[in-house]
């Protein structure tokens, strides 16, 4: 297993009119680690996620994966560079099967993509990609659902399909935006152990953007905390939990 490159977020600033969504934010996702980005409502987590995956362009600062500068690249280029991402509102095709949705993630791995290749994609190649997509579904515990339309699945399974699609690009880093949003307690606990397995068994670095401090504290190696667009803490889960600035940001009171 080769060591993945680190993801560097360096002095990133993002404004919407007069609102500083991100104010000089820096942190590093170390190779093979599970790094959580947390903060209260409006702290800037989604803005940061969107800057990293090319949806928003930062006013200043840089995002790098190893030596590759990601800032300024369009979102669709990132998959080919080893960045997999799953969104808060899984943008899946509900009428298509689980396997067909996950196969869309294989798109970036074929020269020019499936659409460009059209009929030139050989059956053998397609079978190879379908087998890998099914293997990823097995890994995520949805292997028995590959022929089920996504629209017929319970919410927890839909989120897994979205993660499977992100893993189908064979990423070196997986970006997860509030994957537990809308899940019940047992779905959240199962998801937490799956995320841990992605790190431990696949060796993929993970950036987990999450509102819920409770979820990340048990699984993250390192935690960055944002509040009002600023980085207010960065450390191990125990360090940030004991940080008075973090307690104040979450509870609105001095520790
Ligand atoms: N597209 C936008 N246009 C204008 N302001 C925005 C936009 N997106 C975010 N903001 C503002 O930027 C700030 C950070 O918002 P962001 O959604 O990144 O926070 P968040 O930490 O993800 O919050 P939540 O946990 O509520 O999703 C907020 O003040 C928000 O109102």
From TrEMBL:
> Which keywords belong to this entry?
ATP-binding, Nucleotide-binding, Transport
UniProt-listed InterPro entries: AAA+_ATPase (IPR003593), ABC_AA/LPS_Transport (IPR051120), ABC_transporter-like_ATP-bd (IPR003439), BCA_ABC_TP_C (IPR032823), P-loop_NTPase (IPR027417)
GO cellular component terms, alphabetically, are:
plasma membrane
Give residue ranges for domain ABC transporter: 7-253
Q: Is Nucleotide-binding one of the keywords UniProt gives this record?
A: yes
GO MF term list = ATP binding; ATP hydrolysis activity
- What this protein is called in its record is Branched-chain amino acid transport system ATP-binding protein
Query: What lineage does the source organism belong to?
Result: Bacteria, Bacillati, Actinomycetota, Actinomycetes, Pseudonocardiales
